[in-house]
Design goal:
This protein is α/β, with parallel strands linked by helices. The protein has one domain: 3-Layer(aba) Sandwich (Rossmann fold), CATH 3.40.50.9100. The chain has helices at 23-26, 31-45, 57-67, 86-94, 133-146; strands at 6-11, 48-53, 73-77, 98-103, 125-128. Helix 4 (86-94) links the parallel strand 3 and strand 4 (98-103). The radius of gyration is 14 Å and the shape is globular. Bound molecules: 1,3,4-trihydroxy-5-OXO-cyclohexanecarboxylic acid. 1,3,4-trihydroxy-5-OXO-cyclohexanecarboxylic acid binds at residues 14, 77, 79-80, 82, 103-105, 107, 114.
Length: 149
């Protein structure tokens, strides 16, 4: 049991409003529904998952710092902080596991200020634009990465 892969999913500001927040961009699925889908995907792969969301940058940073030595992967949707927060990026850079960035929307097909992510350069990779499936695709990517090619 101790060698189970442990994944922390970190969700940034306003993602608690998914389902009602700009559904034409983010879809009608709630964050809790995404959490349940991810939990099921993790169980399928035998991974342990912890799910977090905060509207506070400080709480997100504290959560990531506490993940050191306790998690193998962080899947992060930094939401608006993706484009602005050096501090969130620095917290992810000090994490001693691996990071996958996710976004529901295709940030590169949207306003120019969303085209720049401060997180991508310190992540293993990013899954963007597949709605709620971006999260489960990130879990599938971890499963692939755990296997020998
Ligand atoms: C988002 C994209 C960000 O630009 C935006 O600020 C969000 C959500 C996404 O998942 O598509 O809050 O991270």
């Amino acid at each position: 049991m101790t060698d189970r892969v442990k994944i922390l999913v970190v969700n940034g500001p306003n993602l608690n409003m998914l389902g009602t927040r700009e559904p034409e961009i983010y879809g009608a699925v709630s964050l809790d529904a995404i959490r349940k889908k991810c939990q099921a995907a993790c169980e399928t792969h035998g991974f342990a998952m912890k799910w977090t969301q905060s509207n506070s940058e400080a709480v997100l940073i504290d959560t990531i710092q506490a993940a050191c030595n306790n998690f193998d992967w962080i899947i992060v949707n930094g939401a608006g902080l993706t484009h602005t927060s050096v501090a969130l990026r620095d917290a992810l850079a000090l994490f001693n596991g691996k990071v996958i960035e996710v976004h529901l929307s295709n940030i590169y097909a949207r306003e120019e200020f969303r085209h720049k992510s401060l997180i991508t350069a310190i992540a293993e990779g990013a899954v963007v634009g597949f709605g709620a499936n971006s999260y489960t695709m990130a879990i599938a990517a971890i499963a692939e990465m755990q296997r020998e090619f």
